[in-house]
Amino acid sequence: MYPLVKTLVCALTLSSLVFAQSQEPLAIDLMRRGSSTGMNRSIQKIHSDVRQSRRKYASLFAAYEKNYGKQHPLRLTSQMQRKRNEGVMDLLDVGGDAEWLGKMSFGNQEFYIQFDTGSSDTLVNPGAYDHRKSKTSTVTHATFKSSYEDGTYAEGDIYLDDLEIAGLKGKNVAIGVSHKNFTREIEKPSSGISGLGYPSIQTFPKSYKPFFLELKDQKAVNKSVFQFTMKPGNGSKLHLGGIDESMYQGNMVWQDIDRNYGVYVGHASINGESVKAIVDSGTTLIIGNFHQVERIMKKLPHVTTIVEQGSLMGLFPCDQELDITITFSGKDFKLGPEQTRWGKEYGQCLMSIIGHHDMQMNAWVVGDSFFQVASIVFDQENDRMGFAWQA
């Protein structure tokens, strides 16, 4: 997937647009297609996803250092109901691989995109957007370039154009068009990525704000709040500009976050291991500190561990259930069978939690497997995250 982004493939499609009248909201439903079992995944897919996550966060840290002139605080010094001005889109799982896509349009051109809380720019492949076909496009002559730890990079040109997403509209919003494809073939129909992180990690020049910040500044949304509710089957949604209480049950617990990180970092416990958790909609797996993951796996019955290419993986009989609980602010979220089983290898199931020696940061990346059990609110107004069980 996009080097700057996460790993898996759950595609969001825009199944319907419901246009608001007067005070009513506008919503886009995100639907799921394909098998959600993911049994076609293998250890090689894990290696690919871990590499993508490492590249993504290496680029994120580089962007932060460029913007602030100092090292990102997470980076290790050593290797290591709907209201006005809200929009909702349905999410679709592409091939059961857990990448969430929805539609957005710039000018008169519409495409599918992944929405990523672990980055801040909107980038598309060549051909997805052509400024020459839009009467509202502005050529900025500005460029972007993201370099990665393996020596590769993504680069292209930045344009301004009118944005429409989930019925919300903004003018002169920045979009970057890459000179070469940066998404993988298996990610189709995805054309790129659109970041929902803070500006501190953007690779665009500071004058070109992330799209959601532009929507807030232009009063297209009343609140800088959005909500992910990713379901293993149909009914996944991204709610922009507010909170849809019908998407969760019980009370929502909150944690304050530090916007200077650029990403959304909370304090969590995973089977008793205390961790800093980057809550990342662009990553598929849960990737953590090697030794902490090792301790968790050793306490789980029926789990056999293997290490390949620096990644610690767990194998277990597919007829067994694993007891894995992630806790935020005292609320426990137990992962179900679909969230603990990520793929299959050697006739056994692969765990969705991976340990790695060389993520080079003092934090875990908590991706798709957690998003499928919780409804998560990202509140930029008050610099906090909210967590509740899905309805």
Automatic annotation (TrEMBL):
Entries under PANTHER family matching the protein: BETA-SITE APP-CLEAVING ENZYME, ISOFORM A-RELATED, PEPTIDASE A1 DOMAIN-CONTAINING PROTEIN
Name of the featured protein: Cathepsin D
Family: Belongs to the peptidase A1 family.
Peptidase A1 domain mapped to chain residues: 100-388
GO molecular function ontology, one term from the record: aspartic-type endopeptidase activity
High-level lineage: Eukaryota, Fungi, Dikarya, Basidiomycota, Ustilaginomycotina
Signal peptide: 1-20
Any one GO biological process: proteolysis
Keyword tags: Aspartyl protease, Hydrolase, Protease, Signal
Keyword Hydrolase: yes
EC number of the protein: 3.4.23.5
Broad enzyme group: hydrolase
